[in-house]
Amino acid sequence: MSANADCGSVGPSLCKLDNLHQQVLASFPMCQMIQEDLTQNPRFSKLLAMLSQQVECHGLTLKLEKELEMAERDLQTQRLRWLCSESLHRLLREMVLEHCVRKHLYNVPTEDDMFYKTMEHNLLVGQCVMQLDLSDYFKQDSPPLLGLDAQQILDLASTQKDLLKTRQRLPRELEKHLLKKCFSLLSYYHPGEDEREGVKNMKLLRLSGQLDGKIKRVVCLKEKSYESAALLQQETCCYISELFGCIQILQSLILDHRLKAQKEIDKNKIEYFEAKCEIVIQKIRAEMMEIQLDTYTEDTISAHRKITEKLEAKLKASQGEKHAVDSMLSSFEFFGKEFEVLAEEYSRLRQEIDTKNWALKEFSYPTN
Q1: What integer best gives the mean pLDDT of the chain?
Q2: Local structure of residue 155 (DSSP, 8 states)
């Protein structure tokens, strides 16, 4: 009963630890951690679990995350306002440029020419005023650009009458231009044959929804790609750790097999070197035989044989003489020390005789 109770208590605790580790890994996806690291460091895993309640997965606190969201919303609003004004300004510039091109190709009514000239002039005035305002904002202590202020530029604007006419006509012209651009975008997005204007308008109304769906899909795919990148990084870390473990096991196996097979390898090497030495010796002998064959001809060999026979005959005669002298010496040694004294006296007398004979010969030569 106690064993079953222990097993039942251990099972839920392990499940809780696994859930805690999974929660920590999900809260910090960019950290290069695996579940084994958390298991080996339980205090560190508890610390990360406490931090996950106060910190987002990006590393920011909840308060800072809210402030960042508010700042991003404010930035998005400001960006939207700037985008609206910039888009309107670019549309007006496009209308002016199209009018300039059209004026060179076709005859344009005077009223249209006056409208676009007034619009171009006021756009230029507004751009200059904006540049002066920016220069005054960034350089408050310095003199204004070219010594001009915004009021001097505004005085160069068109008259109130021309401005009123332009403002009254501008929405219609702007609507036409926008409709033309929308139709061109529709023809690019849905290429096909020319259709009626009503059908185009219906497709144009549905185009914004389709584009929003495409944008949402792109954003969703980007988020999935980020999640996949984080998961891939985590799996890469696990793969690298497992790979290092496999490499260590392979290294240990290689060392063990190398020590066992080293004796056989050394034996094979010794046999190989012995065979190689034997081959080299046989090659040297073959070279020596080739040199002897090139050096000694048949005449040289026959002459050497005759010389050898004569030398052997002389050697035999010398050996016979040596044997006779040895026998005489052995017979002389038989007489003992007295014979040795007589032999020395005999050799001395022989030397004196030889000396006197030489002197006698010298004195007996006739003198000149």
Answers
A1: 77
A2: T
